[in-house]
Amino acid sequence: WHRTHNAAYDAEKWWQMSVNGLEAEVGYINQNGLFIENISDLPPDFESIVQTKVRQQLGTDSARGVIFKPDSSISKDIMNSPELQKFVKNNIQAIINGEKIQGSTNFGSNTNLANALGRADFINTYLNENGDIVTFVFDTYDFNENDTRPEVQIAYNVQKHGKLENYYTISIIVIPKEVW
């Protein structure tokens, strides 16, 4: 896998989606995933999880979102991250035992993940019928008032004045059996 874009490719696209609306990056979304207009369009097992997280993190009952395919640029970055490797290593026995695992992490190992995701949740990690580990990485695209980084404070102020669209993302990660 070779990316010809810069090190913060997804982070830049996600910012553009927030500033200009998700429709502005329809080519990027269609190449990498699927646009979700309503939370109720999600499968039932995800609908309640996403609804709760959107309510907690964005303070609303509705938000649009994007599901990123396993071969998307962001999912590939997550797949190759030390944060995912550590999460799997710390939970491998429970995953093998058939448990569905959840957790969260701060993605800081590369610029793209740090700026696109920051802190994100593993909302459902399990072993599928092929012996592959599957996980779904959930995040809301929003800016937190208590983050002291200057660039986040600028974005927070733009968000506070209603000039950004907050949305959620779900990145699908599949770790083949022969890899883990």
User: Cα-atom Rg, whole angstroms?
Assistant: 16 Å
**Order of strands across the widest beta sheet?**
1-2-6-5-4-3
Question: What share of the residues does DSSP label as strand, in percent?
Answer: 15-25%
> How large is the count of helical segments?
7
Poorly predicted regions are 1-5
**Structural class, please?**
alpha+beta
Strand runs, count? 6
Helix amount, in percent?
A: 40-55%
The SSE string, one letter per element, is HHEHEHHEHEEHE
The major beta sheet can be summarized as: 6 strands, mixed
Shape: globular
Give average pLDDT, whole number: 91
Distance between the termini: 19 Å
Task: Provide key terms for this protein.
6 strands, 180 residues, alpha+beta, single chain, disordered N terminus, 23% strand
